[in-house]
Design a protein that fits this description.
The chain is mainly α. It has ten helices and two strands. The protein has a two-stranded antiparallel sheet. The longest helix has 20 residues.
């Protein structure tokens, strides 16, 4: 009698909470002697089958079927020209974005990212570019750009100001250079390279770091006779002006 009643109740259950309560009652009846081992095992198998059917019919609220998250999946962005990206980050890394003692801590891709940050700080006082723009200009992926900036922050070279907004999209972080050695390096200037963000135009050279101005060698062929004749011709007008009354 108890077995038939429990079997009928199990077939009509609609929630998992009710299934847990019935499972507890089944094993309590088995302990009290109302159910034999075979009957209790049969009811347990019926509970398991019914619980699986209920779980399959549960649909998460607000999440479309087949998706595990409310947020759209991030699109994997790759460079359309990997060779051009490689050349861009190598050129930026070799352009001297920071003092050699500091640059030795970073890889080629990280130095390219820090060069973009340094250029923005030099031009505007603060770097407010989004991480995707920095990565695209440096020719690296966004993960590497994030890691480079965080690594420089951990070394005390720069600061990151987060601009979060509740209920809407966050604004790009503001990056400021904190290292005085790096700031002095930027103020002294360095030889300008081709601006990769625009047309390939060679910039005018400026005074390099650690180099003196070199004057070109006079390549004119000089001989004693020519030197003497040129010197005499140069001094002749002076003598004539002195002898005039």
């Amino acid at each position: 009698m108890f077995h038939a009643t429990m079997a009928a109740v199990i077939d009509g259950v609609r929630t998992l909470a009710q299934m847990d309560e019935l499972s507890r009652q089944v094993w309590q009846g088995h302990a009290a002697g109302a159910l034999s081992d075979e009957a209790a095992q049969a009811l347990a198998e019926q509970l398991h089958a019914r619980r699986s059917a209920i779980r399959q019919g549960i649909v998460p609220v607000g999440v479309p079927v087949g998706r595990a998250s409310l947020f759209p999946p991030r699109r994997h962005v790759t460079s359309p020209d990997k060779l051009a990206s490689r050349d861009r980050r190598r050129l930026l890394a070799c352009s001297g974005p920071m003092p050699p003692a500091l640059a030795a801590r970073f890889t080629t891709g990280q130095l390219a990212v820090l060069r973009i940050v340094a250029d923005e700080v030099t031009a505007k006082g603060v770097c407010g570019l989004c991480i995707d723009a920095i990565a695209a200009r440096a020719g690296v992926c966004r993960r590497l750009a994030q890691a480079a900036i965080r690594l420089a922050e951990g070394d005390g070279l720069l600061t990151i100001e987060e601009r979060r907004h509740e209920g809407r999209k966050n604004s790009p972080n503001l990056v400021r250079i904190l290292s005085r050695e790096w700031q002095a390096w930027m103020r002294r200037g360095r030889r300008k390279f081709v601006d990769l963000r625009g047309p390939a135009e060679a910039a005018s050279p400026v005074q390099g770091i650690g180099c003196r101005t070199i004057h070109p060698t006079d390549r004119r062929v000089l001989s004693p006779g020519k030197i003497e004749a040129r010197t005499t011709a140069a001094k002749l007008p002076e003598r004539q002006s002195r002898t005039r009354p």
